[in-house]
Amino acid sequence: MTGPRFTPLAQSLPSTVPFVGPEAQERAMGHPFDARLGANENIFGPAPSAIAAMQDTASRIWMYGDPESHDLRNALADFHNASRSNIVVGEGIDGLLGYVVRLLIHSGDTVVTSLGAYPTFNYHVAGFGGELHSVPYKNDAEDLPALLAKAKEVRAKLVYFANPDNPMGSWCSGPEIVSQIDDIPDGCVLLIDEAYVELAPEGTAAPVSIDDPRVIRMRTFSKGYGMAGARVGYALGNAEFIKAFEKIRNHFGMNRASQAGALAALQDTEWLSQTQEKVAAARNAITDIAAKYGLKALPSATNFVAIDCGRDGTFAKLILDGLVANGIFVRMPFVAPQNRCIRISCGSERELALLDAALETVLADHNC
Amino acid sequence: MTGPRFTPLAQSLPSTVPFVGPEAQERAMGHPFDARLGANENIFGPAPSAIAAMQDTASRIWMYGDPESHDLRNALADFHNASRSNIVVGEGIDGLLGYVVRLLIHSGDTVVTSLGAYPTFNYHVAGFGGELHSVPYKNDAEDLPALLAKAKEVRAKLVYFANPDNPMGSWCSGPEIVSQIDDIPDGCVLLIDEAYVELAPEGTAAPVSIDDPRVIRMRTFSKGYGMAGARVGYALGNAEFIKAFEKIRNHFGMNRASQAGALAALQDTEWLSQTQEKVAAARNAITDIAAKYGLKALPSATNFVAIDCGRDGTFAKLILDGLVANGIFVRMPFVAPQNRCIRISCGSERELALLDAALETVLADHNC
Question: What is the domain range of residue A229?
Fold first, then answer.
């Protein structure tokens, strides 16, 4: 009796996962976290109108979602002054990243990202047999000129660039990106992950022509719109490129309530404004807490703040472990020198007070 | 300015989709269907407890779902007298089928299914470059001995077998399947799609040993549990096989509200019993409606009934088009001779009365 014959690629893949969820950590600890500040979730939540739309749809959840996400794509097309054919809706940016990689990358194809950038992208590249090249951060920011130069050098088919960046919170202006568009090598696609862009300063979104076949942008309802658990993201790009997703995507993969919730969330601009204010205030509060203990918070255009713990990765990990032991779920960058930081998601006053107290305890434990 | 360089496989794929959604048909018609009886959705809906769980979770949807679906898998493990390590939860069976195909099939690998069986499986096989072989239905049922013989002949890595079958509603007893397990060729996996099994006679589920590496079974909350729009399915199998999903699945792909809804639905056995009764009654009602017009309904172990229109596929398509034009969303098998039938999902009294009236009109139009 023999088992399944996995593909050589599947056999070669590690069983590691990009992220362990906070629930798994809670089960291991035997108690829940007091503050959930590690996954850049938006604790201020979705608009009440979005919650209502999801709740209302729950009673009709016996119906599959519209496989075309027609109404949501229509609204997004209006929002972006584009056409429905420029937009594909998918199961979060994570899902869409997988689709893009699958469309472009097969064994041995080259891909470029920043060393220490979003691991789920790397997971997909490995998952389809791509060869990943990376360039270091520069001043704690993703270095677009270096990424494009590396892409040219290795004849990459795909470059990943998050703006704003995760895990550092740094960003680059939209026009600055556009000024480099012609440096994208022939036959290479620049993927701009704009997951956090609603929380960034005006002008951060790259004003790339929607028809430009060299660029694909990704957006999500997980961050600014506070709907991480609903799994709604979308890609914006050239209609030909977007059409290719039809060949491989899970057409009936969208949750019907999530489609309705995202549509309502998009229309509630007042709630988004309030969220932007709350997030900005929380960033300042985290910065102040860090400063109180002599630590430096990095500037952030996202709903999280990287706090420089002032020494190396080992030390930052001690602080992180201490916070976790004190009931605060946080994460940290994976790679030096960015791993001198811990990454704190914006919380409300309650969570930030808990963070403050825990940080005081942990730093005292380490004689800081 | 060049565009993306798609993989040769991506370039070769057609842009056709497995199914057009009813919403797209409604937009084309300019009005909604009066009765939605085409997608084998469960109009009797999820348990009120499941709806409540989803609604309650909507206000906490700012949190990602647990990537391990721990609580749901725990409950499913109890339900199946298995271990959590035997279960992977995914974005509906559609999503899980994609994962299985991706794990096993690369360019040129052979796969076997029934001619006219679930097209989304075929879509995934094509999407990963597999070579699909098919065997015809036998007496309107999937022919397991022939499928396994074909698998041996073409050295298939994967065989798809739906029990009960869609689109015909036919089924085979679980023990009958188990009696053929040793006919699975070496290195081949038998995938049993049990999407409709909660609606089938006792004893239809295949009592395969959970540790048998030759079989993987799939279940869903879309049909018996009435949660198609929530996108929750799971695969049951050997722990080693299940573990392989960790290498490629979208770990944060599950909707948090859907996880909670599925957990509640699983526990509400009373609601499932009621659904089973309602579905059985609706099957009988559809059979009676068909008989009233001299048409023969096929026996069904699902929440739909195939009605033999008595002539060929062209004629059945006329009837189907007529029903659609009369506001009734229905679908039909794709392949002869099964395409002599139309496939009607179970409805409540209102929908079945509309079906009855529309069928009378349409048959009269065609002088039947």
Answer: 48-267
Domain count, chain B: 2
Over residues A110-122, the pLDDT tens digits come to 999 999 999 999 9
Alpha-carbon separation of residue B158 from A5, B153, B217 (angstroms): 9, 13, 12
Residues B315 and B254 in one domain: no
pTM of the model: 0.97
Q: Which 97-126 residues of chain B touch chain A by CB within 8 A? A: 98, 102-106, 109, 120
Among A residues 47-86, those touching chain B with beta carbons less than 8 Å apart: 51, 54-55, 57-68, 70
Q: Do B229 and A60 touch (CB under 8 A)?
A: yes
On whether the CB atoms of residues B49 and A216 are closer than 8 A, the answer is no
Q: Say yes or no: A203 and A282 in one domain.
A: no
Q: Are A149 and A283 within one domain?
A: no
Tell me if chain A has a CB within 8 Å of the CB of B40. Answer: no
What's the pLDDT tens digit per position in B50-93? 999 999 999 999 999 999 999 999 999 999 999 999 999 999 99
B114, B115, B117, B121 alpha-carbon torsion, rounded to 10°: 80
How far does CA B216 lie from the centroid of its chain? 15
Tell me, yes or no, whether A206 and A320 share the same domain: no
Examine residue A206 and state whether it is found in any structural domain, yes or no: yes
Q: Strand B189-193 relative to strand B215-220: parallel, antiparallel, unpaired?
A: parallel
Q: What is the pLDDT of residue B16?
A: 74
A234 plus A142 within the same structural domain: yes
Nearest residue to A5 via CA among B120, B214, B88: B214
